[in-house]
TrEMBL record:
Protein name: Glycoside hydrolase family 13 domain protein
Chain ranges of the AMP-activated protein kinase glycogen-binding domain: 32-104
Any GO molecular function: hydrolase activity
Recorded family membership: Belongs to the 5'-AMP-activated protein kinase beta subunit family.
Domain of life: Bacteria
InterPro entries: AMPK1_CBM, CRP1_MDG1_kinase, Ig-like_fold, Ig_E-set
Any Pfam family: AMPK1_CBM
Keywords: Hydrolase
Record bears the keyword Hydrolase: yes
SUPFAM superfamilies referenced in this protein's UniProt entry, alphabetically: E set domains
Organism in which the protein naturally occurs: Desulfatibacillum aliphaticivorans
Amino acid sequence: MAKKKMETGGKAKSAKNASAKKRVTFFMRAPEAKEVSVAGDFNGWDAKKHPMKLDKTGLWKKIVMVAPGRCEYKFLVDGDWALNPDTEETCTNEFGTENHVLEI
């Protein structure tokens, strides 16, 4: 299985079926945070659905199955919406703030 690295805060593995969901690893460096989750088009913007886990290096991670195509997402860090400073691809959302963009 070939690997496809994403530059938008995650990594996706290619599958044989182009319409199949892909495993995407979302990540955010926030060593001081007590709680981080990821929400977006892929989960109905439900921040409770995908809580992330903190590793020893201060990196929060969560693997999520995401359908191919374009999706927008953001992180909830200790109750506040946040962008990952290590991710460049963003777009303006309906609230006048920004979301990350992921193309799979």
